[in-house]
User: Which sequence fits this backbone?
């Protein structure tokens, strides 16, 4: 769909007198895009005949370990970009996250007066418009788009109740004339493969037509632009250069604290639903208990969750999105190596140090037989949980966890997104009411993932695949609906005043 829209924009004119493409020809163009995406060196149409399967098997068995890792990492880069390009955005979840992220007071660690009392205050001052006004406009747009209306005029939006400042903001920041769009898309093609390049369209999901109306390209992109990660980038870029001590740098660091607090809230809810999980232990408690000399706190992870006599979950949160190139299929294996070292491997090192402290001190009831489950939590825009990304993480952290792995006290490390974590909250809540423990599902997944790596030599099982294979439903947490309702109520009050 993204490439189809790209080619439409590249080939179109907004001249109303221009002839339309005949329907049959348009269908052929759609099919040609599908064919291009499905074609591989082993197949012309995405299907696999026995000969193709045999050739793939022959290629795989001919590789040594290093060649296998390189091949899998090349596949991983494509899977990551495809995953993010096709990631569905659910309205209820995005709006709940917007309420939680932007309208909650800053964590206690955030003291910069330039940021105001909440992230919404920073948005307001950085962009010269109230965030709630922008969200109210977004509510109008997605309501109309859900009903099949994709063309918007200033007068129509204002008559629907949209605030004037928000409408001005949308036309100034979310739309582009077709000619400018075509120039930017041409730059995309000069940059490299365009199959997963979408940032030009997610930043500007509306085409500004010659009559002054705004044509929405895709419902999902409007949803993300008004309620998703684009709110952060809009604010960050509007604050100026992120130099040391700047408001932009302060905002970025403060949002890292917001992310950690959001993760803590979800983990607290999960722990509350689990008989096996005794409590959530945070970084400050660990450092306070283990500091041996003043001014030299130990390096520890953000969260530890005891699982009774069996072991511990050890987690670290990093608000680290994928960089521009990797998220759009333009990055290399070396690019990913740098990114993973700065985020995932660094966090795994903190987890490993925490595990060693727990074992050395027999802390929180730990014994020599206690088993540890290491997890790194990233934002939705971060590294996704895939079999390939987990295999890569296992290889990259062999030295980090080496001594612990040899003691057989460790499940292989994994990375999950914040949305995965919220998914576990929904499962914990839903199945907990029926007497099932989310701890069993998490440990079962990690056991299955580890078996895939060590026993069969195949990539580990992703969380989504494990849940599907185990027949576990994936309900949305009730807390999500409460947060969404709170935001929608505020929006509706704004639209009626």
Assistant:
């Amino acid at each position: 769909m993204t490439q189809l829209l790209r080619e439409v924009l590249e080939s179109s004119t907004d001249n109303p007198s221009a002839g339309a493409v005949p329907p049959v020809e348009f269908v052929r163009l759609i099919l040609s895009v599908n064919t291009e995406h499905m074609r591989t060196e082993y197949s012309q149409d995405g299907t696999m005949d026995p000969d193709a399967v045999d050739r793939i098997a022959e290629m795989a068995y001919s590789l040594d370990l290093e060649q296998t890792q390189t091949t899998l990492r090349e596949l991983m880069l494509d899977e990551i970009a495809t995953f993010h390009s096709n990631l569905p955005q659910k309205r209820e979840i995005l709006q709940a996250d917007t309420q939680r992220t932007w309208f909650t007071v800053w964590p206690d660690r955030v003291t910069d007066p330039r940021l105001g009392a909440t992230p919404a205050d920073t948005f307001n001052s950085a962009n010269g418009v109230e965030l709630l006004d922008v969200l109210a406009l977004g509510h109008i747009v997605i309501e109309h788009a859900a009903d099949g209306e994709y063309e918007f005029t200033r007068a129509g939006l204002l008559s629907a109740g949209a605030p004037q400042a928000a409408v001005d903001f949308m036309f100034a920041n979310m739309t582009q004339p077709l000619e400018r769009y075509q120039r930017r898309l041409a730059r995309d093609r000069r940059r490299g493969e365009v199959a997963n390049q979408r940032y030009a369209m997610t930043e500007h999901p509306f085409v500004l037509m010659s009559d002054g109306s705004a044509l929405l390209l895709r419902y999902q992109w409007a949803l993300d632009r008004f309620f998703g990660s684009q709110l952060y980038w809009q604010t960050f870029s509007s604050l100026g250069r992120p130099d040391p001590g700047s408001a932009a740098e302060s905002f970025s660091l403060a949002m890292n604290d917001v992310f950690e607090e959001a993760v803590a809230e979800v983990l607290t809810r999960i722990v509350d639903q689990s008989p096996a999980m005794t409590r959530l232990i945070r970084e400050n408690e660990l450092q306070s208990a283990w500091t041996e000399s003043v001014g030299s706190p130990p390096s520890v992870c953000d969260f530890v969750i005891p699982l009774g006599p069996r072991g511990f979950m050890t987690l670290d949160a990093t608000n680290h999105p994928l960089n521009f190139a990797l998220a759009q299929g333009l990055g290399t294996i070396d690019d990913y190596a740098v990114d993973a070292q700065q985020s995932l491997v660094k966090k795994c090192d903190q987890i490993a140090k925490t595990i060693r402290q727990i074992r050395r001190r027999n802390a929180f009831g730990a014994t020599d037989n206690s088993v540890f489950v290491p997890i790194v939590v990233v934002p939705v825009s971060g590294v996704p949980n895939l079999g390939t990304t987990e295999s890569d993480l296992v290889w990259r952290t062999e030295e980090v966890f080496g001594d612990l792995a040899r003691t057989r006290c460790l499940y292989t490390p994994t990375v999950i997104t914040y949305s995965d974590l919220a998914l576990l909250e929904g499962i914990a809540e839903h199945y907990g009411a029926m007497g099932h423990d989310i701890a069993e599902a998490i440990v079962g997944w990690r056991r299955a993932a580890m078996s895939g790596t060590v026993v069969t030599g195949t990539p580990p099982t992703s969380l989504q695949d494990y849940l599907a294979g185990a027949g576990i439903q994936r309900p949305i947490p009730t807390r999500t609906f409460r947060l969404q309702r709170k935001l929608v109520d505020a929006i509706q009050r704004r639209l009626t005043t």
In short: The two ends are 39 Å apart (CA to CA). Residues 453-457 have pLDDT under 50 and may be disordered. Residues 174 and 204 are 4 Å apart (CA to CA).
